[in-house]
Amino acid sequence: MKKLINDPDDVVDEMLDGMVAAHPDRLRRLSDTQVVVRTDAPLDEVGVVSGGGSGHEPTHAGYIGDGMLDGAAAGDVFSSPTADEFEALVDACDGGEGVLAVVKNYEGDVMNFETAIELAEMEGAEVATVVVNDDVAVEDSLYTSGRRGVCGTILVHKAAGAKAAEGADLADVQRVGQKVVDNVGTMGMALTSCVTPEKGEPTFDLGDEEIELGIGIHGEPGTERTGTMSADEVTDELTESVLADLDLDEDQEVLTIVNGMGGTPQMELFVVNRRLQELLDERGLDTWDAWVGDYMTSLDMAGCSITVCAVDDELKELLAAPADTPALTVR
Amino acid sequence: MSADGEAAVAAVERVAERLERERDYLTELDSAIGDADHGGNMARGWASAAEAVRELDDPDPATVAKATGRTLMSEVGGASGPLYGGSLVFASVELDDGLTPESAVAFAETYLEKVRDRGDASVGDQTMVDALVPLVHTFKKSIEVDGLPPVVALAKAVDAAERGAAFTVPIRARKGRASYLGWRSVGHKDPGATSTLFVAESLLETARDRLDATVAPDLDATSPTVPEEGATEG
């Protein structure tokens, strides 16, 4: 498999250097770590941080900036950052008002973040956590106890970051993060496997005439492997599963995300979004905002995920509040 | 360097040597039910830890334990980093006032508590907890109830941990990566329980060397090799 890399061992390090070089006014790396923070961190407000394995770009460092994250730790490809990296992240983003850690529900992320938080607390820091588990596909997986945290995480970053920017206290910032978690669902699918830099070949076999539904963001197994389907059929399957999980009332306002897994053209994502909006309309749901793009990828995997988040006045205000980050700008 | 500090450094070095010897064996265990990196991760992590503690100025047991934990946290990765490394850092504070039978028991108990909290695992889930619970409980009982000398207590504890590690073979994994295999995890020895046993054995060897123990531990005496609690949990 052809890859535009040098040495697989250096890929994360070189990627982070390249990201910072592209946004030197916004991002800086903490020396000797894979932690990236705002150039002006820590701010005099609640710090909002996240992190996880690499390979999901622009997640996570792409969401660092005004109105979203203060910093993020990058692990190796599909591996959690270590506890000392998370600890350095929390420390760098603690301006005295406390720190909210947004953690995706993967075993390694949760354990390393928990350890880091406990160590930071021993040093006097105040840290709260929101664990994101929006994937409606599987209850337990290769990497998790309970549901996986996937693309809905971006909305937690956005809402919590906006609340922190308002000058809210740590409990309030955590509350709005949890509010997103309580109201969001996601389900993904793959047309192809991804190829990790280290392995250099597909991590799982998917035939030319096969797709996998309910897949996670590492290409871990989903709920069902089936024959190829049209864009509309795929959209129907994913949307039905998400809506069944959320169980929304008619006229509920929602924000939707059609997220590309890294190897799918915008053309196809828009085709999916077209059908998604038709379905919501048929259900009597009211789309308040629709995002389409690569928000949380899985290297070069072809496929997409669909996220639906029920929004109330408070969440609408926070999700529409200004944000200025490398990967997401809201004006 | 204090005698206790010297012994602590020697213990870390001995663990590193043992895990280097067991690298392939642990990886073989992990490849059956996990992602085949436990041997390499542990050998690399403890080798770095040995290097780190050798460089400490005037080490004492607490700083050695803390530096070891810190190094494991950053070098081992995955779930083993926080489980082994983080727990060691938290437990190290129990040795702040020096190494005594009482502080050793507190150290072991805090370590166990942190591993259980973090991994959310109980006895019978096929994890390192299956070796750790009998190890710590036997050590505590041998010191506090039976009043045995520390090295004898540790020998009994290692014996209990060995049976605990063996106990992971016939059971089904309910926590950790292996749990995904469901019933297919039956028949496999848990890599984390096995490496925990190797660490404990290395500590015992160091303690025996140091004390030049003349009392052969009587391992046939009744020892609580069956965990006092937790067997029916989960």
UniProtKB/TrEMBL annotation, chain A:
<dbReference type="InterPro" id="IPR050861">
    <property type="entry name" value="Dihydroxyacetone_Kinase"/>
</dbReference>
<keyword id="KW-0418">Kinase</keyword>
<dbReference type="GO" id="GO:0019563">
    <property type="term" value="P:glycerol catabolic process"/>
</dbReference>
<protein>
    <submittedName>
        <fullName>Dihydroxyacetone kinase subunit DhaK</fullName>
        <ecNumber>2.7.1.121</ecNumber>
    </submittedName>
</protein>
<dbReference type="InterPro" id="IPR012736">
    <property type="entry name" value="DhaK_1"/>
</dbReference>
<dbReference type="Pfam" id="PF02733">
    <property type="entry name" value="Dak1"/>
</dbReference>
<keyword id="KW-0808">Transferase</keyword>
<dbReference type="InterPro" id="IPR004006">
    <property type="entry name" value="DhaK_dom"/>
</dbReference>
<feature type="domain" description="DhaK">
    <location>
        <begin position="7"/>
        <end position="328"/>
    </location>
</feature>
<dbReference type="GO" id="GO:0004371">
    <property type="term" value="F:glycerone kinase activity"/>
</dbReference>
<dbReference type="GO" id="GO:0005829">
    <property type="term" value="C:cytosol"/>
</dbReference>
<dbReference type="GO" id="GO:0047324">
    <property type="term" value="F:phosphoenolpyruvate-glycerone phosphotransferase activity"/>
</dbReference>
Automatic annotation (TrEMBL), chain B:
<feature type="domain" description="DhaL">
    <location>
        <begin position="6"/>
        <end position="205"/>
    </location>
</feature>
<keyword id="KW-0808">Transferase</keyword>
<dbReference type="GO" id="GO:0004371">
    <property type="term" value="F:glycerone kinase activity"/>
</dbReference>
<dbReference type="InterPro" id="IPR004007">
    <property type="entry name" value="DhaL_dom"/>
</dbReference>
<keyword id="KW-0418">Kinase</keyword>
<feature type="coiled-coil region">
    <location>
        <begin position="2"/>
        <end position="29"/>
    </location>
</feature>
<keyword id="KW-0175">Coiled coil</keyword>
<dbReference type="GO" id="GO:0019563">
    <property type="term" value="P:glycerol catabolic process"/>
</dbReference>
<protein>
    <submittedName>
        <fullName>Dihydroxyacetone kinase subunit L</fullName>
    </submittedName>
</protein>
<dbReference type="InterPro" id="IPR036117">
    <property type="entry name" value="DhaL_dom_sf"/>
</dbReference>
<dbReference type="GO" id="GO:0005829">
    <property type="term" value="C:cytosol"/>
</dbReference>
<feature type="region of interest" description="Disordered">
    <location>
        <begin position="215"/>
        <end position="234"/>
    </location>
</feature>
<dbReference type="InterPro" id="IPR050861">
    <property type="entry name" value="Dihydroxyacetone_Kinase"/>
</dbReference>
<dbReference type="Pfam" id="PF02734">
    <property type="entry name" value="Dak2"/>
</dbReference>
<dbReference type="InterPro" id="IPR012737">
    <property type="entry name" value="DhaK_L_YcgS"/>
</dbReference>
